[in-house]
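Researcher: Quick one. two chains, 255 residues in total.
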Amino acid sequence: MSSIKIRTKRLDGNTQIRTLISHPMEHGRNKDKTTNKLIPAHFIQVLTVTHNGKTIATCNMGAGISKDPYFAFLLKGGKVGDVISIDWVDNLGNKDSEKHTVT
Amino acid sequence: MKANRRKFLKTSLVLGTAGIGLLETGVANAEWNAADFAPNPFDAAMKQLLKGKTIIETDKIDLNIPEIAENGALVPVTVTSRIEGIQSIAIVVEQNPVPLAIQAELMPELDPFISARLKLASTSFVYAIAETEKVCYSVKKKVKVTIGGCGG
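Model:
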């Protein structure tokens, strides 16, 4: 199952894009309580949002974003049937992407 | 077009190989700049982010964040700007080990609006910085964290 959930909503002629990603977002300074070792850093570095194939947002982020990150964007216009896709790359090279059609 | 693509692939290969040694995380990513997200003091991080642009305090950016956060591991933040020509919005947390939390480059198709959830290490000022072609606009707000935000 994809780690990305996308929801869109039409608001006064605009389209609100909301996304929830399941990701640990470890910054590498937390300790594992049972083994007392540092948990290695594991966080999303780049998140890209595309609208009908055109990139509309590129977010570079560090581990200052909370676990299971949530983001919202507001697209000017947008109509039913537009395809929004979101993909992320983390510092370990993992990737995921998800497509969503505006309804 | 084709020649450009070749050239791009070649340069990215060279840069990528050079980058692997430098990055602590071991993964070279063309867009992600490790220096921006290095554990710097706040002043150094701001300098790195602004790249020589002047910064102006403004009231045309709405930074919506709770004044008191019960849990610093999850602080919802919303930034809305009423300034024309915004290219990117960054959110910086003064007291975090890595002050820059997110830098979002927004194309003109999007409204200058972003919402996210931050981690706050301790009570700190949170800055929203909107970048236009020439200058940066900033707004700040203090957030009080009542319990430790880093989980450890």
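Chain B has two domains: 1-32, 35-147.
Researcher: Thanks, that's what I needed.
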